[in-house]
Predict the 3D structure of the following.
Amino acid sequence: MHQYGIRITIPTSSTMSKDHLLGKDWASYRWYSSEEARDRAFEEMRSQPYNYRQGDTIQQILEKVERSGSPA
């Protein structure tokens, strides 16, 4: 089964990339069964979350990825 995903990382300049927090190599993935579902989620994730304070910005890097086979 082909899967479509979003890889989430943080900028090296982010406070959360410190070794005692998430670390510089931290990554998370979200997987979807269709390219359309992944693309919709990607656009939603690019938007500023509604619960952030005015002036705060989300620090994340989003990348579309794909893989074949079963999820790990």
